[in-house]
């Protein structure tokens, strides 16, 4: 019969690339990890790794087993968290990470509703880039995040989409790019780009460097100010840029292409050890109204 230890050794080997690296990640001896994998192969009556090269490579059988093993381990982790918190009281402090690029005008109504139902909860708010907020949730610095969707998030984080925000490319009206029409995106490489990046230098999946000359910030309002000063072009949420477009300080990047912007989904994320608790269910339910007209 398969054991959790066998599946952990198998998945860790795949994710780290070797038995020795898997052993370090699991804080076990390499011989123990290797034996767990061998025992799993015996139980499955199939070879899960091709060991002929320097590093183990998944066989076709291993590739079939991997997603099932990952799902089972994730469910096992949820079970452990549930068992650990059966006798615990609901958290008395709730820390929410907010990406400043997301409009938060309705947040006060949501907080009032939460406070009415859970009057003893202390709230803390942190602002950061979406990628930094994912790290906050993963490390327990925050318990709920409001972020722009990312293609990759840790498996222990639950997410729910609550709407979308339109982004477009902007440049100061005084910038050289405002005086010409770009016939292709390659022409943007001739000018400095202003780009969002997390504090650990990771870029969002939709904030990609196009130009070889890039300045970075972890805050959309800093990007806005840099753009207003003529330091480069950037991708900004429309709701942040609109008033500056209206007063003539910013312009939509002139382009032959009608639509070169981006519709970014907004997600609420929580670590799954908390997702089933009433206060977090209430918060998720309320946040569904954050972007409604």
TrEMBL record:
Residues 1-59 form the HTH lysR-type domain. It comes from the Bacteria. Pfam families: HTH_1, LysR_substrate. InterPro entries: LysR_HTH_N, LysR_subst-bd, WH-like_DNA-bd_sf, WH_DNA-bd_sf. Keywords: DNA-binding, Transcription, Transcription regulation. Belongs to the LysR transcriptional regulatory family. This is LysR family transcriptional regulator. It comes from Shewanella vesiculosa. The lineage of its organism: Bacteria, Pseudomonadati, Pseudomonadota, Gammaproteobacteria, Alteromonadales.
């Amino acid at each position: 019969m398969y054991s959790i230890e066998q599946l952990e050794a198998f998945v860790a080997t795949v994710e780290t690339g070797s038995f020795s690296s898997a052993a370090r990640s699991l804080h076990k001896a390499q011989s123990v990890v290797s034996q767990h994998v061998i025992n799993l192969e015996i139980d499955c009556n199939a070879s899960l790794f091709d060991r002929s090269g320097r590093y183990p490579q998944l066989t076709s059988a291993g590739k079939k087993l991997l997603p099932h093993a990952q799902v089972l381990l994730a469910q096992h982790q949820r079970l452990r968290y549930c068992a650990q918190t059966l006798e615990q009281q609901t958290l008395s402090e709730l820390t929410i990470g907010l990406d400043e690029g997301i409009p938060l005008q309705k947040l006060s109504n949501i907080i009032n509703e939460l406070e009415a139902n859970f009057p003893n909860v202390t709230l803390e708010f942190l602002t950061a880039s979406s990628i930094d907020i994912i790290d906050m949730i993963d490390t327990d610095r925050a318990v709920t995040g409001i972020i722009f969707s990312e293609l990759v998030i840790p498996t222990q984080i639950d997410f729910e989409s609550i709407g979308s925000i339109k982004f477009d490319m902007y440049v100061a009206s005084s910038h050289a790019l405002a005086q010409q029409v770009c016939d292709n995106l390659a022409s943007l490489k001739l000018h400095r780009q202003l780009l969002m990046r997390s504090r650990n230098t990771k870029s969002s999946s939709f904030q990609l460097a196009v130009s070889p000359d890039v300045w970075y910030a972890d805050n959309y309002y800093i990007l806005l100010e840099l753009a207003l000063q003529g330091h480069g072009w950037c991708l900004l949420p429309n709701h942040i840029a609109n008033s500056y477009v209206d007063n003539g300080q910013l312009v939509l990047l002139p382009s032959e292409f009608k639509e070169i912007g981006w519709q970014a989904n907004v997600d609420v994320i929580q670590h799954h050890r908390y997702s089933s608790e009433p206060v977090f269910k209430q918060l998720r339910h309320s946040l569904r109204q954050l972007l409604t007209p």
